[in-house]
Amino acid sequence: MSGVLDEVRRRHDRRDESAREWRAAGGNVLAYMCDNFPEELVAAAGLLPFRLGGDPGAPAPHVARYVAPDRHPMVRVPRFVDAMLEPVVSGAQGFVDYVVVPHGRRAVEACYESLSRAPAAGAPMPEVRLFYLDKSHVPGYSESVFDHHCLLAFKAQLEEWCAAPVTDDALADAITQANHGRSLLARLNRLRTCNPPRLSGTDAAMVYALAGAMPRAAHNDLVQRLLDDAASLPVRPGRRIYLAGSPHPTPRLYRLVESLGATIVGEDHCWGARIAGCPVPVTPSPMEGLADRYHQRPVCSIEFPLDRALERWQASVRLARPDGVLVYVVDGDELHIWDTPDRLERLAQDGVPSLHLARQRPADDVKLRDRIGAWLNGLPTSP
Amino acid sequence: MTATQDPPRLGVVARVRDHQRAWLEETRRRALEGEGFAICNADEFEELFNALDIPVLVINPWNFLIVAQGKAAHFGRVLEARGYTGPHFFALGLASTIAPEQAPRGGLPTPAFVLGTTRSEAELRVTELWAREFGVPCIPIEFNLASPAKTLPSPGWWQLTRDRWPELTDPARLELRLDQVKSALARIEALTGKALSFSRLADTMALVNAQVDLVAEVRELIAGAPRCPVSVRDQLSLYQPMWHRGTPAATKLFSAYRDEVAGRVRSGVGAYPRENHRLFYASMREDPSFHGFLQAEFGAALVGTPYLAAALTYARTVYDDDPLRALVARQLFLFAQTPDWLVNEAQFLRCDGVVGVEPASEYPSALARACHAAGLPYVSVSGTGDSDATRRRLREHFRRRG
Question: From residue B101, how far is each of B66, B85, B104 by CA, in Å?
C-alpha cells in the first residue's frame, strides 16, 4: 500500500482541513461550484479557491429549513446541489468568505438567490459575499466577447474585495502552477487508462476532489509524490468501467463498483478526470488565455450543440477503452435525461456494453450493488 | 370547478377559443402550403414573428392542449420508449412529433426552424432534439426571463417594468442578447424569405402596450367591484390572447373582455354564487379542482391569480426609437414571483386570504411569511387536486380562522 495514497485518503476524509488552516492563518477563502472555474484568478488575488461539495446521501436539514421553502416550485433540485449548499447554509464551513455561483444548471444558478436570501430566513451562516459568474452556453464570437467581459468583471470584483490589483505577473504564475497541476493529473489519469490500470477510480476521485480544496502547490506536491510512487501500486485486474452521467462529489459509487472487482478507468462528470484536462493556452496575455479556456469549456456539462458534447464524450470513452459503460443519472438531473439515449446509441455503435440507471437516489445501495454486480458478471471478457 | 352552481362563463371565452382554433388551422394550412412557420418558447419571440408575419407555435400552449386532451400519459410513454425518463411537461410537444398519430389537431407540420431556449438545461436540449426530429435548425438564444438576476429585484419592482426597465436589466446580458437576436433574425429572414420592418415592430410594441392597458382596466374592475365579476377559470382562459400580443386580433379580444367585464360590474353580476371569503390563488397553475369544495363548504371564492398582474409586465416604453432593445430587455426580465408582488396583488384585489400550492414542508415559505407579516391568512396545499388531504388542510385553515 502506498503511503501517499494513505495521505490522499486521510486528506479526503477531512477535505476542508486546508481551507480551515488557510483561514486560521489569516487568509481568505473563496468557494465556487463548477469545474470550469478560473481558479487562477482567485489564486492570483491571494485567496484560496475552494470548490463546494458534499455527500448527496447525507441529510441537508438546513437547506430543508432555510432554502427549500423559498425555491421556485418549477426548479427541480438534485441532491448534489443541496449537498453543496448545506455546509454553507448551516455555518459548518464558516471559513468561507466569498461564494461564486455560475450560470450553470438551473438548480445550481438558483443557489445565488438561495444564498442571498438564506440569512434573512434565519440560516445560521456567517456573512458571505456573493458573485454571479456569467457565461454563455452558446458558442460564437459575440459569446466569447461576453464571456471575456464576465471574467474581467470577476477580476474587478476580486480586486475590490482584496483592495489590491490582480497583476499579470501574479496571474501568469497562478496559471503556470495550475497548468503544471493539470499535467500532473493527466499523468495520474494514465495510471487508470493504461491496461491493466494501477490506480483505482476511488483513489483518483479523491485526488481530483482535493484539487479544489488545497492550495495548488500543495496539491501538485501530493500528486507528484503519488506519481513517484506509482511503480509500487499493484496492477488491478478485472473489468474496466467508464462512469457516465450525473456528478459524483463523493467516491461512494466508485467504492461500490470497485468492491465488485472492477475498476472505474474514466468518467465524464465534473468531479472526475475533467479536472485534469484542458490547460490554459499560453498567449501573450494570461487573461486572454484564461478567458479562451473559460469560453471553450462547458459549465455544468451544458453544451450546444449536442453533437459537439457527444463527440467530446465519445473520445473520452474511447481513450479509456472500457469493457462497459455505467450511465448513472440521479433523480432531479434535468440535463442527462436528454443526452443519455444518444450516448447509449454511440456506445452501441462502438460495440461497448452499457448499463443505464435512471432517476437514482442515494439510499438504494443494496439493490444497486446487486444490479451492477449482475451486469458486471454478464460483460464479455476482454480480448 | 365543481360547485353547487357553476358560474356563468364570459361570452368572450368562446370567442377566444374559436380564435385559437381558427388560428391553429390557418397556421397549419399556411405551413402545409410551404410557408415557413416557427416554434418557440413562450415570452420570447412572439412579437418578432408577428411583426415578420411568420406563424408561430408557442411550446407550452401546445403542451397544455395535449394535457387538456388527456394525452399527457400517452406522450409520457412515447418519451419513455425513446429513453427519456419522465414525466416532462415541456417535452410533450417533442413527443407529439416523435409519434404524431395521437397529436392534437392532426399534429404539427414541419417548421422552418425551432427557436431554442437556454431557459434551463432541459429546455435547451428538448428544443434541440425537437428540431432534430423535424430535421430543421435549432437557433438557441442565451439568457432569458428565467436567468437569475445578478441583482435581486428590489421591493416594488413591478412598478419599474414599463418605464424604468433599464434598471431591471443587466447591461452585458442585454448587449449579448441583442447581438444574438439580430443574428437570429438574419438567419430567420434567410430561411423564410421575410424581412422585419422597423415600423412594423414599433407598431407591434405599441399594440402590446395598448393591450396591457386593457388588461389593467379589467384588473381594476375586478378589484373594485363588490362581487368578483370573472371566475378564475375565465381569467385563465382570457390569458390566451397574450400569446398573440401585438396583433390587432388580440386587441379585439382584450377589448371585448374589458367591455363584458364592465357590463357585468354595471349589472352587479358576480361570477360565484357565494363570496364569503375572497381568496387570492398564488399559483400559476390551472383552476384547482378543490375550488368547488371551497365554494360549497366555505362560500370561499378564488378571485385572482398572478396572471392578471403578470400580464401588466409585458408593457415596455420604447426609448431612443429602438423597439428591439425594449423588447429584448423584456425577454430578459418579465416578472419575478416574489412574495411582495403576490401579497401586493392579493391586497389590490381586496382578498382576505391567500392559497398557495407548494411542496409539503414543516417550515413556512417566504410567501407564507410575507402573508403573515401583511396580516393575510395563508394556507398552502401540495397540489391542485381535490384530495382528502387537501380538504382536511382547508377545513383546518378555516376552522382556525373562525
Answer: 13, 21, 9
Give the closest residue to B281 by CA, choosing from B227, B224, B355: B355
Q: Do A337 and B88 touch (CB under 8 A)?
A: yes
Output phi, psi for A48, to 5 deg.
-95, 120
Residue B393 pLDDT > 60: yes
What number is the average pLDDT over the span A58-70? Answer: 94
Touching check for A302 and chain B: CB below 8 Å? yes
User: How do residues A275-294 score in pLDDT, each as one tens digit?
Assistant: 887 778 777 789 999 999 99
CA distances from A294 to A154, B282, B357 (A): 12, 40, 40
> How far is the C-alpha of A203 from the C-alpha of A263, rounded, in Å?
11
Q: Name which of A45, A267, A11 is nearest A154 in CA terms.
A: A45
Report the residue of chain B nearest A105, measured CA to CA. Answer: B121
Cross-strand partners of B115:
B139
pLDDT in tens, A253-279: 999 999 999 999 999 999 999 888 777
Q: Give yes or no for A356 touching B (CB within 8 A).
A: yes
Residue A91, chain B, CB below 8 Å: the answer is no
pLDDT (0 to 100) of residue B2: 44
ipTM, two decimals, is 0.94
Query: Which of chain B's residues have a Cβ under 8 Å away from the Cβ of A151?
Result: none
Across the interface, do B363 and A68 touch by the CB < 8 Å criterion?
Answer: yes
pTM equals 0.93
Mean pLDDT across B364-371: 94
Q: How many CA atoms lie within 13 A of B227 on its CB side?
A: 19
Please indicate if any CB of chain A lies within 8 Å of the CB of B120: yes
Query: Is B107 in contact with B83 (CB distance < 8 Å)?
Result: no
pLDDT at A108: 94
Chain B residues with beta carbon closer than 8 angstroms to that of A339 = 125
Question: B359 CB near a chain A CB, below 8 Å?
Answer: yes
Q: Which amino acid is at B348?
A: F
* CA-based nearest residue in chain B for residue A357: B85
